[in-house]
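ASSEMBLY PREDICTION REQUEST
Request ID: AP-0331
Submitted by: J.K., bench scientist
Number of chains: two
Total residues: 496
Priority: normal
Notes: Please return the full assembly, not individual chains.
Input sequences:
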Amino acid sequence: MSKTTMSEDRVLVERFKQGDEAAFEILVNKYSGRAYQIAYGVLGSREDAEEVAQDVFIRIHRALPKFRGDAEFTTWMYRIAMNLAKNKYRWNKIRGSKVNISIDAPLEGGGDGSGEERRIDLPDSRMTPDEKSTFRELEKSVRDELDNLPDIYREALVMRNVEEMSYEDIANALNCKLGTIKSRIARGREELRKRLGL
Amino acid sequence: MVHAMIKNSYEHNCPTPELLSDFCDCGAVDSDLEMTAIARHVDACDVCRRTVEAYRQLDRLVAAVCKPPVGLEKRILAAVKASGQTPVDSPWRLRVFRLVQVAAVVAVLALAAAAVMRYMQPDKDVTLAENTPEPTAQIATVETDTKTSPDSGGAVAVDETHPERLRATGSVRGNDVQAVGIDRNGARAAAPVAQYYLPTAVRHVWTTSDLQQSRRLLDALAKANNGVIAWTDAGAQAGSLTGKIQLEDGKLQALVDNLHSRGLQLVSPSLPQPGTGAKVKFTGQAITYDLVLVRAEQ
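STATUS: Completed
Returned structure:
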């Protein structure tokens, strides 16, 4: 996390505290993806991850006026996302449900009433149709195997791929030592590589 | 460090998967020297190069799999709005809110204190009475020569014009008269004037020389207050009458004053006493007034 970003975040938080709702929208645009990815790492479900991401920002909207700024906004947000995702995970576990949805399956109801189909964008639009098809299959395999990874590996591995989330941020969010995080990411990668036969 | 890396390799003198993973995340490797050594090895070793490539491909795939859905921000903002939260509290709003909170707490505490005062003070006698074995009694004789005024601490008021001994006959609860004669010397220190609330139920024992006349008087007074006294005649033969009426607290004080001015003697010590209007805080609440008329032998 760059110092500029941290400073921008502080300004946004202050603006929000002064009643500027637009500042909150900027924070949502900037960090909703990370909240979603953190939740996804814990839950392995797109629907649950989105639900948690929404809840994260509802909580933030409520609590931000009291946010003292002792920690960075992102650190605070990661913690909230992590806690809510873990709560959701426990709840799912109690209910004995784990929703698996095909990666290509559109999600039901956008929540905004638009009914728009939500798909995971392909990383490279220059791919040929065959390549795209292969990539989609691989994506599905990755998703399945990712879901089957031990939780501690999946959490660390997904967070590693959250934009700009450093090892320190991950360690902080997961309340672990840096060495533990490095080890989990490495083992997660290796395990996934073996399972996918790469 | 570099030698340690090589020594820790698990095959072909290769770096461990952990080191290769750190190598993928540029900067995660502890030192530049180590980084350079791994880079050279990966260049030269097909196995490690494939592993590193696989890790990088996995990263891309994981990132793609975890990519947030389109329109997430819009839905989050809609959810925040739908959660029914008020707009952001600005500092002055927060301050006002906190002031209101503090005021509310103070008000609640004040009300609680008032409630305690209300139920503690007038019930002091009641509490004492409840702790006393009851009923004691067939009070045959109630003797008092006290001359305390009601304002002097709540002892039974005795009219200056009737200082003589009163003899009551009939069934009277001991608790109703236990405070009679507390201050035989009339030397009780004047209590500070305070405002008391009357309890919701008051029981008084009155002595009278003529039961039926007093009953008629009470009926007339009750009627004047738009009330009716429900009498129980069970004890009439034994020289007592029991009645019950509901009155507002202010009217009850007036009734007590009236009865007293007409020569009835209030034996019970509990408020309201004749002339205690200044001590009592009237709220207009309804009070169930149980009264016992006892024939007094003079």
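REVIEWER COMMENTS: Chain B has two domains: 2-65, 120-297.
SIGN-OFF: pending second reviewer
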